[in-house]
Amino acid sequence: MAEDEIHVRTLATFDTKFPADTVEWCPMEPYRDVLACGTYALNKNESSAKSTYRQGQILLLRIGNGGELELLQQVCTSAVLDMKWLHVTDVAETRVLLAVVDSTGYLQIYQLKDDGKRIELVTKSKVSDEESVMALSLDWSNRKDISEPVVNTNILVSDSAGQISQFTWGETGELTKDFTWPAHQFHAWIVAYDYCNSRIFYSGGDDNRFLCFDSRTGSHPVVDNKEHTAGVTTIHGKTSLLATGSYDQNVRLWDTRNFARPVSTICLDGGVWRLKWDPFTQQYLFAACMHNGFKIVNHDIVSSIVVNYKEHSGLSYGCDWSFLRQPDVSRLNIPNGDTLVSTCSYEDCLLKVSVIDFWPDKHVNEKDY
User: Residue 142 and residue 132: Cα distance in Å, rounded?
Assistant: First the structure.
């Protein structure tokens, strides 16, 4: 595909007030027009060094007619580090769930209510007994098949002490901690399940290590990869292929059957904070590149950069694809678009939603991941 075939046009810009660091589109029908954004603000009391605290908000928004963004709800909480929607319907009450991790070390579970107009806290659990430990990233175990409800699912959380914890979300709507394992010497920035086998999961940390665990064999990693030359910050997988990003500015693609060396490496000229495979073809990789904007990489064409989006100022932290397909975009009276994407940046305190005209074949089959 030629680069001039790919067009990105900003539809809406929203002032998040606090620095924005994470954004996630709801994957579940009929709420695919809903997205959540997390913010993080560091506050200091000049009279006392001990009074530094981190505050944040969860912003629930909806994309409307013509691409306008509507703020549905604003939830005040501790600083938000990561959030993810459950990609299945919770079987207990057909609940649509959003998991959030925060700077006070809690894993929070919210339920989407009132026809997608608000979220309500269901439960929360402390990740660590240490007061100063922050919860940094999370992942749900079930991201592959959204057509079937599940009774139990697992949630992984990484923290600032370098640990990984797994929780079980049960049929009764409660969180039970299964284990906490040591993993990294410093901050464990990212944790992710293998979506083809939830017994396998991955982590990356400030010690430059990329680890693979098998929950059947215990807390010792089955792979300890030291290919990265700086902290490993993001991991996102698809069938047999895993993408990792690092402060060393490189995205590495791995065959999950052999971690001896990456399949390919591409430098994005900016520390890579988030990676997201597109949910339709899994051919395109969306990257938040911190000091160098947002990029989309076409994995099928020698890992070429096909989109370079620089409409933000400041650190590029959060990015996501919507699950809206071309007919959905058309119904919103948004012309010339195949799907929508969202980006958010730290210093400029902005969330942007853009339309992307990406695939010449308008009848793309969705592959859930």
Answer: 30
* Burial class of residue 131, CB neighbours in 10 A (0-12, 13-18, 19+): exposed
Radius of gyration of the chain (CA): 19
**pLDDT (tens digit per residue) in 310-367:** 999 989 999 999 999 999 999 999 988 999 999 999 989 999 999 999 754 443 444 4
HEC profile of 37-94 = EEECEEECCCCCHHHCEEEEEEEEEEECHHHCEEEEEEEEEECEEEEEECCCCECCCC
Task: Supply 279's token pair.
Answer: 């949910």
Quick: pLDDT tens for 57-90: 999 999 999 999 999 999 999 999 999 999 976 5
Residue of 326, 324, 266, 325 lying closest to 296 (CA atoms): 266
Angle made by CA atoms 334, 353, 114, in degrees to the nearest 5: 85
In angstroms, how far is CA 173 from the centroid of its own chain? 23
How many whole angstroms separate alpha carbon 365 and alpha carbon 369?
A: 13
Q: What DSSP assignment string belongs to 22-35? A: EEEE--STT-TTEE
Residue-wise pLDDT tens digits, 250-296? 999 999 999 999 999 999 999 999 999 999 999 999 999 999 999 99
CB 306 within 8 A of CB 297: yes
pTM: 0.92
